[in-house]
Amino acid sequence: PLYDGGSKIVGYIVERKPYHVTGDGRWLKCNYTIVSENFFTVTALGEGEEYEFRVLAKNSAGVISKGSETTGPVTCKDEYSPPKAELDAKLQGDVVTVRAGSDLVLEASIGGKPEPKVFWSKGEKELDLCEKISLQYTSKHAVAIIKFCDRSDTGKYTLTVKNASGTKQVSVLVKVLDSPGPCAGKITISRVTEEKCTLAWKPPHEEGGAEITHYIV
Q1: pTM above 0.70, yes or no
Q2: Which of 2, 28, 72, 167 has the highest local Cβ count within 10 Å?
């Protein structure tokens, strides 16, 4: 206040009442101890209800001021904002490659109000917490860790963030690189002479996640 009544201001009292156009209603205290700061969070309000608030100052002499000008009608409702999702920088690209046996870490920043439902999925199947998969969800981050990757972990992973304001999805393609499998079928031998022979074979069924470039005999 501009005038402290001759004694130092020691705190404030916050009051509320249901809003009525006529001004009817009784003011109720929102705080049971003196508020020393210039702000206060009022709790235990009814969703969709209208209230008005005012503040009174108290000085060290114990004198309480008249109420401040009221806030006017305030409707209690959740703040809504659309869901947000952004992949970590190391996941942004056409394809993310991982060596077999290492861990795949999928991380993204998320947001939205009310707090959204969040989940990682591979293809159409939601990832479930298990010995191989670790999941960590907070209000700001979503992390999935696939341990000891193998070729079966190659695929498209999608993060879905959903709340009352909508749905946001971000995806990343993952390729797990491994050693190629053995050549398919039997080796055939032809053109045998006393000095040479010709060997022929079929490519392996499993390329290891990359194109076969050459063979070692």
Answers
A1: no
A2: 167
